[in-house]
Structures are given as C-alpha cells and as structure tokens.
Amino acid sequence: MNAPVDLLRLLALPVLGWAAVRDRRTRRVANRTWLPLVVLSGALLAWEAWTIWHGGFAAARRLFVVRVAVSVGVIAPLGYLFWWLGAFGGADAKALAAICLCFPTVPSYLLPATPPIALPIASTSGAFAVTILTNAALVGAVYPLALAARNALAGRVRRAMAIGRPIAWSEVPRTHGRLLGRANSLDMGLDLDALRMYLAWRDASLAELRAAPTEARDPESLPAEPRAPGDGRIDVATDGGRQATNELADPWGAAAFCDDVGNAYGASPAGLRAALDELTTTETVWVSPGIPFLVPLFVGLCLALVYGDLLYAAMAVLGVI
Fold first, then answer.
1. What are phi and psi of 190, to 5 degrees?
2. 236 contacts: CB under 8 Å, gap ≥ 6
3. What's the whole-model pTM score?
4. How many other C-beta atoms lie within 10 A of the C-beta of residue 283?
5. In this predicted structure, what is the pLDDT of residue 275?
6. What is the per-residue pLDDT for 1?
7. Three-state SS across the chain?
8. What does the pLDDT read at residue 226?
9. What is the mean pLDDT of residues 175-183?
C-alpha cells in the first residue's frame, strides 16, 4: 500500500466524471482532456515504482512489474484494438488507456470508522485495470436489458427491442445513435451524426425536406455554394450545401455529399438515400441510442474503488469459485 500515491490517484475521478457527462451529452470529448491525466498518472507510476524498488521485497517488485505490464501493456492497447475494430470511440480508447496508466495496481484506502473500513471491500483482480474493465462491461450490460424491458412493457416485442427504440421523426436531429437498418426495413443503417452533417451540408432541416420531399430529391435543389458540414455533433450548429455534378443519377445529392465530405461516419450514397426516403415518409423510426462507454467505464471504476470486482463477487455467489 502506498497511501500518498493512492490518494493522489483520486484526483483523476473529477476529470473522468466530467468526461463521462460530456460523452453522454455530446458524444465528444476534447483530446486535451487526457493530457493532465497522462502527466499525473505517469508521475504517480514513477513514484510508486521508485518506492517499491527501494523499499520492497523481490516478490513485491515482480508482482508490481506483472501488474503494470498487464494494465499498460495489455488492457490499454486492447482499447485501441476495439477502436480500430469500430467497437470503441476514440475517447473511449483514450479514457481506458488513461485509467490503465493511473490505476495499474490495486489501490487501498482506509475510511475512519470503528473499526476502520478498508476499500475496496471485496476482492479485485491482481491487475486492477481488469477489474475496472469487467465492472464496466457488467454495468454496460444493464442498458440493453433495461431497453428490452421498456420495449416489452410497451408491447414492442421485436428483434431490435434490446438495441433500439422508436422515436418520432422530429426527434431524430436531436438524438445520438444510429438509424437501424432491418428494424426500419432498410438494407443498412445510418449514423445520425452523418445525417446531421448532410442536413448542414445542404443547409436544410429535416422538416424542410419532409415538407417537399419530391423537390428535395432533385439535386438541382441543392445550394450552389458549398458549406462546411461540421462533424454532426448536436451542441454545435453548422449549415451547408453543394451543387451536385450529376443531377439525373444522384437523388438527394447523396453521392455529391459523400464525394465532398469524404468519410461521414461510414455513410454511403445508397444508405443515405434510403435513410432520407424513410425519414421523409414515416412518422416514427427505430434508432439505436448507443452506449457512451465512458459512462459505464467511470461507474465501473468507482465501483472497483469502493466495492471491488463485481464479476468475482457474482461468481462467488453462484458458487463458481
């Protein structure tokens, strides 16, 4: 136990908590958020290493090296692998790396009580980052279960009930997530950030497209001057539009948008056209809200610091271990 180091590690909690709130509201966390955590974590890790090397036994040194190697060398790169595969956002991967660097070993705290209460209360994995990650996965699993229960109680029993919910078309521009494909009878889904980029690009609202869908499908209705599409975030207003180059073969100007913007969250001309056809003709659509992983990650960290390993406790209750 290194009490000063463990106490200073708690300084990361307000930053991570703010990032989780920001991620839930906007799905955006600035890169500069992580620099203070990296500096703090690196300094504390060096302090702990110096303390163990100059005052610990050989076994303690070996255990420290193994735990740091698993946390920083395995779990942190795993976050970037998930990001590369599309399972994580960039902020999720950076947050996991920062947490792995900040909490590479199991912290310990004594609460003033009679008798004193030691935290974490229950057992944890030797590599504390593993405990945090498994806690986050268990916390995140609650969301689809709650979503399925909510849909079931409303009588919406279908294949997408655990990953999506129906919303009115008017809510779409203010909603994070993804327009589902099969649940909306589409061949493919569409990231709603890409939709907001398209609306900004052509300087039009979804309500305006619905008011005159036939005219809006005609590429000649696009503004002549190009405008910045932004990045699709909800909290920043952007606008835009551009003249299509092939008017007859490009309904909605979808190909012109994709050519002009480039990678808009994986949107394709065909997928964008199908989504616009659906959004301008139906009253409700199914969307997958998605889970901002920073939220369960932060909750999983707090649970690990106070309680310990939820998976280990569950397995103990079931008699597996």
1. -150, 130
2. 230
3. 0.85
4. 8
5. 96
6. 59
7. CCHHHHHHHCCHHHHHHHHHHHHHHHCCCCHHHHHHHHHHHHHHHHHHHHHHHHHCCHHHHHHHHHHHHHHHHHHHHHHHHHHHHCCCCHHHHHHHHHHHHHCCCCCCEEECCCCCEEECCCCCCCCHHHHHHHHHHHHHHHHHHHHHHHHHHCCCCCHHHHCCEEEEHHHHHHCCCEECCHHHCCCCCEEHHHHHHHHHHCCCCHHHHHHCHHHHHCHHHCCCCCCCCCCCCCCCCCCCCCCCCCCCCCHHHHHHHHHHHCCCCCCCHHHHHHHHHHHCCCCEEEEECCCCCHHHHHHHHHHHHHCCCHHHHHHHHCCCC
8. 62
9. 94
Tokens representing 96 are: 């996991």
CB atoms within 10 A of CB 239: 16
- Is the per-residue pLDDT at 242 higher than 60? no
Q: Which residue has the tokens 């500096």?
A: 39
Mean pLDDT of the chain: 89
Is it the case that residue 283 has pLDDT exceeding 70?
Answer: yes
- Quote the tokens at residue 257: 């948008």
54-107 residue pLDDT tens: 877 888 889 999 999 999 999 999 999 988 887 788 899 999 999 999 999 999
Amino acid occupying residue 94: K
Asked whether the predicted pLDDT for residue 41 surpasses 90, the reply is yes
Rounded to an integer, what distance in angstroms lies between the CA atom of residue 104 and that of residue 186? 45
Nearest of 31, 32, 81, 28 to residue 193 by alpha carbon: 28
CA distance 8 to 112: 18
Sequence letter at residue 187 = D
Is the Cβ–Cβ distance between 13 and 62 less than 8 Å? no
What is the C-alpha radius of gyration for the chain, rounded to an integer number of angstroms?
Answer: 24
